[in-house]
Amino acid sequence: MSIPYQTSNKEVTSRPMTVKVINQCPAPPPVKQKGIPI
Q1: Long-range contacts formed by 21-24: CB under 8 A, 24+ apart
Q2: CB-based burial, 1-25: b 16+ in 10 Å, e otherwise
Q3: Helix axes of 2-14 and 17-24: crossing angle, nearest 10 degrees
Q4: Residues 31, 5 contacting (CB under 8 angstroms)
Q5: Residue 25 has what pLDDT?
Q6: How far are the Cα atoms of 5, 15, 21, 36 from residue 26, in angstroms, in the given order?
Q7: What confidence tens digit (pLDDT) does each residue in 1-38 have?
Q8: The pLDDT value given to residue 38
Q9: Three-state secondary-structure class, residue 13
Q10: How many angstroms separate the Cα of 6 from the Cα of each of 20, 37?
């Protein structure tokens, strides 16, 4: 579960559309890094 999360974090910086995918998925680790309160 750590591998997919890291890949998503890198894609988020390159693609803002990935943020929507993470927002739909229960992933508090990447969301917290963006500065969004859970």
Answers
A1: none
A2: eeeeeeebbeebeeeeebbeebeee
A3: 150
A4: no
A5: 56
A6: 11, 19, 10, 13
A7: 455 555 555 555 555 555 565 555 555 565 555 555 55
A8: 52
A9: helix
A10: 16, 19
CB atoms within 10 A of CB 30: 19
Return the pLDDT at 5: 52
Q: Could you identify the residue written with the tokens 């969301």?
A: 31
User: Which pLDDT score is estimated for 1?
Assistant: 46
Rounded to two decimals, the pTM is: 0.15
Identify the residue whose tokens are 């500065």.
Answer: 35
- Position 16 scores a pLDDT of 58
CB atoms within 10 A of CB 31: 16
